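User: My collaborator sent over this chain with a note saying "see what the structure looks like." That's all I know about it. Can you take a look?
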Amino acid sequence: MTVNQMSAAEVAKKAINKEALFILDVRNEDAFQDWKIESENFMYLNIPYFDLLDGVEGILNQLPQDKDILVVCAKEGSSIMVAEMLSDEGKDVFYLAGGMRAWSEHLEPVKLGELKDGGELYQFVRIGKGCLSYMVVSNGEAAIIDSTRMTDTYLQFADELGVKITHVFDTHLHADHISGGRMIAEKTGAAYWLPPKDATEVTFAYEALEDGNDVTIGNTMIHIHALYSPGHTIGSTSFIVDNRYLLSGDILFIDSIGRPDLAGMAEDWVADLRESLYARYRNLSDQLIVLPAHFMIMDELNEDGSIAKPLHELYANNHGLNIEDEEEFRKLVTENLPPQPNAYQEIRQTNMGKMTPDEDKQREMEIGPNRCAVR
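Assistant: Without extra context I'll predict from the sequence alone. Here is the result:
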């Protein structure tokens, strides 16, 4: 029978469209339990590759007859070998091209809407890692917000749209993924903006992202005024785009809120986090569409694959926004937190410019799920 590859982009489409897929994951059990490809209608069987070296006959009765079968491993090689063994047993199967490494790096662009003075807003969904980044396009110019290290995706997308990247922003100093903002700025000549309170140890020049800055992209104004929103980091800054969209960084997610402990300052920053969520954001229009920098679970995806909800819906349904007792809130965000992101200290050092790991090391540092949220 046949063995075909399935790309991370094809798997992402299946996940977004809630299609059925059977995944045979041949990584070790601890890796599978920590992080896997997820979707509502995906089914799973985890059998480590080394348990299949003597043959796959013992698992044939555990494989479906009526669903696509995708074999997954860390980098690709082991999944190809298992897929070939299954093919020899009469199965039509796929393997994930590039393995979980490719799944971690895939960015799915989703158009969020038109801007009122012309232009568009796009969200880039890093579905395997839970990262979200954005491109604001207006009158031949573009701004990128919270970019990943996969910079070619943004550059190629801008080329396809025929626009020039003029500004790059990070809402805060990221601890769970390596920012591509500085590299994009270097490649395009764009201005790179970073909150100065998060940049006290950086080794490079940047534009200070502070209250009172209003940056124009083509015909569109990105309002930063009065949106200093500390809590996840001391410099965390939100954006309002086109008086319609609230880019909340890692302060507020659709189903959760940001954690304040990734710089070792949880007890010091918990009050800032509450002030940002319960006071600063409360003063904004509740009709704003919240666009976070991460998502935590697949249930947060809309039908079109976007992650976005009106602020009033979050105040109605997000548990982290409805804790009246301050002590209970403090305990939520300082105790019983999920594990910290893989290599987060090294990632912070890299985003400060203090480390310059090669590409393989960067991939290794980022492996694993999103862990920026408290839920």
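A starting point for your reply to your collaborator: The first strand starts at residue 3 and ends at 6.
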